[in-house]
Amino acid sequence: MVQKSGHLTRIDDKYAFIGITPSHRGIPIDLATIALAGVEFRGQIILLADSFLHLNKQPEEQIIAGTSQTRRAFEVLAKIYGLKTAFLYTSLLMVGELYKGIIGELRETAQKVCSPEEVIQLVPPAYRHSEQAAQYPLHEAACTKILSEFLFIDIKLGPSTEKPYDTLMQKLNVRILFNYLVDAYAVGTNQPDAVNHYTPTNVGPHGGTRVLLNEPVETSSEKLLSGSEQASRYLLTVASVAGLRLGKEALTSKEIEELHGKKLRKVTQHLVLENIVKPYKAMENAG
């Protein structure tokens, strides 16, 4: 579930964290990718970026709903696949004199090593006109710095779309290793549109959609037949890793690469439903 990296010869002896902006709009199946990635590390922390939603002026009830829903999804996934998952909230990190000192230091460094425009370009377009826009990447760097220096986290994990943020962190001298999840793809389009794993409204530029764990099984089943070959191979890979954790049917990388067209989509549909969607529904209903 983690991309191969030339500068990291092994990761099973390291602790990782991934920062996630919670959403109240749905639970992408790609949260399973994040959860299963934790198997590859010595330990993984899910950092729920609730305070970043406050920066975006999101209504409080939506923040509470999204944060609760996202944590609950990871708790269900952890039970299904026998994972140990720890949680932190940015709202607990971004307080006190320690944080005040770190964010102040990063602001000073940023003024020396990069332009304000460079920082603003890292912010999603919808939020660039906010008075807090330039602070968003610096707060992300500050949270990462605390996790690295005070909680001894070795690796920041994230979607490959976060590489520009990570480049800025390196300029700001945040000492942590960076690694990336395998790319996730939208379904509902024959175009290989990469999407953010934890943002259900991120569907790519070609009218795609996402498989959601909180939608009816029948809806997910239909969507699983509508993706590009890249999307199907990605989902089939995740389902196969899930199957190995459950002692159920799973395909090897070679077997996945040998599948094409309708056969690929049908096998993907079957294994995703049996190894991810249905176990999630059963565990969720069991409470």
Strand content: 5-15%
Described by the principal axes of the CA atoms, the overall outline is: globular
Order of helices and strands: EHEHHEHHHHEHEEEHHHH
User: What is the average of the pLDDT values?
Assistant: 95
CATH superfamily of the largest domain: HUPs
Number of strands: 7
Secondary structure tally, helices: 12
Label the CATH architecture of the largest domain.
3-Layer(aba) Sandwich
Major sheet summary line: 5 strands, parallel
Backbone structural class: alpha/beta
Major beta sheet, strand line-up: 3-2-1-4-5
What would you say about this model in short?
The protein is of the alpha/beta class and 287 residues long. The chain has helices spanning 31-37, 50-55, 60-81, 90-93, 96-113, 116-120, 135-150, 163-171, 217-223, 229-246, 253-257, 261-286, and strands at residues 15-20, 43-48, 86-89, 155-158, 177-180, 184-185, 194-195.
Account of the protein in words:
The chain has about 290 residues and is α/β, with parallel strands linked by helices. It folds into two domains: about 15-180, HUPs (Rossmann fold), CATH 3.40.50.620; about 185-285, no CATH class. It has helices at about 30-35, 50-55, 60-80, 90-95, 95-115, 115-120, 135-150, 165-170, 215-225, 230-245, 255, 260-285; strands at about 15-20, 45-50, 85-90, 155-160, 175-180, 185, 195. The strands form two sheets. A five-stranded parallel beta sheet has the order 3-2-1-4-5, sandwiched between helices. Strand 1 (about 15-20), helix 1 and strand 2 (about 45-50) form a beta-alpha-beta unit. Helix 7 (about 135-150) crosses helix 8 and helix 9 (about 215-225) runs antiparallel to helix 12. The chain is globular, with a radius of gyration of 19 Å. The two termini are about 25 Å apart. The model has no long low-confidence stretch (mean pLDDT about 95).
